[in-house]
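Standup notes
- HV: blocked on the assembly model, inputs below
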Amino acid sequence: MSLQSASVARHALVWSFVAQGVCILPLLYFMPYWMPLMWLGVMLWRIQIYRGAWPFPVTKIKLSLAGVCVVALLASYPGIKGVEPLIAFLIVSIVLKVVEMRRRADVLLVIFTGFFAVAAQFLFFQGMLIAIYSIFCCLVLLTAWIAIYGSRILPFKQLLIASSKALAHSLPVMVVLFIVLPRFGSFWQVPLANEAGSTGFSDSMGPGTLSELTKSSSPAFRVNFIADENGNRILPQPKERYWRGLVLDDFDGRQWRYGRTWMMQHGYNSNAVPVNWEVETRSDRRFEYEVLIEPHNQRWLFTLMAPERVASTSLKTQFAGDFLAFSRYPVTSRAKYSVISAPDYTIASEQLGMHDRSRNLRLPEDYNPLTVALAESWVEEGLLENDIIERALQMFQSSFYYTLRPPVLGRHSSDEFLFESKRGFCEHFASSFTILMRAAGIPARVVVGYQGGEYNPLEDYFLIRQSDAHAWAEVWLTGQGWTRVDPTAAVAPSRIEDGLSASLEEEEQSMVSSGFRGSWMSKVQMRIDALSFSWHRWVLGYDAERQKQLLKGMLGGTEFWRIALFALLSTGGMLFVIFLWLVLRNKRAHLSAEARVYRVLLGKLAKRGFKPAQGETPLQFAERVAQAKPQWKSQLVLAVKLLNVILYQGRTDEIPRLRRLIGQMSLD
Amino acid sequence: MNKFLNYKAPWQKFFFRWLDKRSKVDSAYQLASKNLYIFPSALGFAFLVMIVVLWLLGTNYQNNLILALSYLLISLFVVSILHTYANLAGIEIQFKGVPHVFAGEVSQWGFAIKNEHAKSRENIFARWQFAEEGEDVHFALDASSDITVNVPLTVPRRGVFQPGRLMLESRYPLGLLRCWTWLKWNAHVVVYPQPLAKPLPRAFAVDELSDGDHPVSGGDDFSALNNYKPGDSLKHIAWKSFAKDQGLMTKEFSQNLSREIWMDFSQMKQSDTEERLSILCHWALAFHLQNENYGLMLPGTIIEPGCGDNHRAEVLNALAVFGCEMPVDLRR
């Protein structure tokens, strides 16, 4: 029985190889290329040992193998950073363990680390499919586990049934625990996965940056709008769906950049916009919404203008200048934040600070001379700010094309675009427009983010994909403050109203990975995404706040006693049912019908203190009882004789009579 | 046996005392909640530690799926309490008997174990409380089946012994929990002294009788051919006559007893009682094999000379119980 000495049956070893392989398979995708090879090598080695072809390795070989692996790990992860090296180390150790695995304790170690491997999968993947796969992993691990605890070789089917039962009985209890157990914040900072989720744009924009993104239909974030206390919910019009990510106000002639340092002077955790920001709201209209953001490994968050509050339980949100919302740390896992935005706003309408003004007018020397000259000519014509904007937009509208395949531009990108190619994507329009404005003396900047979004009626949310990435401009107008101007809207208004696909020529539509918009496939896709959204909302995004909501809805309050009572009753009830099923089910199933009837008689007699002795036949027993209680004799002997008739003459048709006889027996 | 089952540990003594108070001695039991105990094993505690680590991981990464995994494993732990219990509950076990043994030998205690349920029972482990290393039995029970299991126990001394408590244990399916029972049995074994080959005092071969005075049937010398009577030994049938169609005949053998041997405890020169008994035991076995007529004189017990298996059993029994007729607990 001792753990150390117990060796393991061979079939149980096979199960543990399989279990380990299944658990580390998804992780190998993120591991260095040599690791799958090592795993295959170790498996081959172990199979040879298993077949008896090779001996178990001696200590010297084991040590040198471990040494080689450590060196390989150090070579693959030079600056040990992130969680990958840790997981790689875990995998290497448990894979090497397999070579010398032969005792029960070894197998248990492999199984326990298998559960850690399953947990590690969740650091990289969090979808519904990986959850289903992980249940499969647990099933295989449990099967291997049970295989080493059987005293005999259990058939495959029986093993699988035993492990499925254990898992099936645990899952409902887990669901209750998941719902009720309290959630805590992180206790300490942990290393994060480097490679998980890295789509999205960076903090700079050059020609071609966004058109690359449109090839990806993967989701950027999902938004659901929340009704206010009166049940009214305001959804933004398509032309209002500008999800601001970053403000790019630093132009070096080629690239637009975010020109500020990361650390803002405003304190952390301040959910509300600082009071000294000069924002006025012109109406009571408010958008209240929750954003479920995919990990993009960046710190910026997406909001509709003008955000008033940003809050989150998992991200430490804060505001930076220019109404940008940030997370304190890069978003490396799916996260949720809620925002309140006031769509009818004016910002800094009276005057722009000297510093801000000069930054938003700055243009590099010796770049785009023709563009600058054009803008200056407009100023010389005596046009006012609004007229200059109007003139620029008209120019775009009259002779420019919106295309995903703009020609390659040289040093004076804006000049070439405005005066030669006249074909471009949103970044070209936004960039040229901003240069024009700055040259004309109007403070202007480029804003990148997403525009639009697909409404999913099944779960009532908007899905914003990478292909919705967009760039537009903001100009500062005297008396109006910062105002959004989207030059792309002038060229391709349908881009804003109907999305990217609709605004492109037919031949280019196939280039946009919009996810089959409009076809029957889109309905399927919508359903899948709705499922995925529910998954995110109810499983991945189930946090303390949502827990409170749910428990309040379910139990009518979140007092401790309510939750404890609910947890006890529900888990207790489930366990009780499982207990009954395990212990009582089939208890007497193999007893024949007459034996069950006879049992009733035995029960009646047992209550009165009579028990059959070892080896006593029913007739002997009845006679013995009759000696003590002569008044029962006739009933007992009749019943027992009938029983014998049934037993020895096969008269099963008499069973109902016997049952009646015994049922009516009065033993006083 | 692993170190967690140290029967001499104070808490184990306390546990047994408590057990004795609430359980009776019986010769048949059905395992149920009143006699089954369950507690996490060392592996179970290790598993709980692993769950805590996973939970910390999930909380620190704010990863609901890792948290869910840790909750799944907690549930698995709780559910496996029921599964482990169900693997033993409902089993019926009945004491069948134990053959006599000599001191120092392993006694085999037979139990009939019955599983009436429609599911099989796996990996059950049985051992006696005072069993030595390796004296244990592993068995499994198919659905609706019964088997006989012999549980070994080394008995070091002669006498009449109660075997102490029988432990039945199972950790199936996951080894996280140990479910066990301690059953005290209405059973005892008679342990004969360990035979010790030493010469008998010459004075024992008393009652020298002359040849032919006491012809006693049985023995090696062929004396007559009789008609076969039911009950005659098959070994003695004269098959040759049967082959010659002379009917079934039985060969009669007789032996002229030369002597009656009295083994007298009081006349032995060894000072140690146990040694004397051991020597007597050896000679009783030897005389039995030689078909001698031997009797035994112990203080307070006299067994007239005789031979045969029953006589042998009577003699050995007298040697075994000498000075200790009442069954006592076997302790080391």
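- HV (later): unblocked. The first strand of chain A starts at residue 204 and ends at 205. Chain A is about 50% helix and 15% strand.
- Next: hand off to the docking folks.
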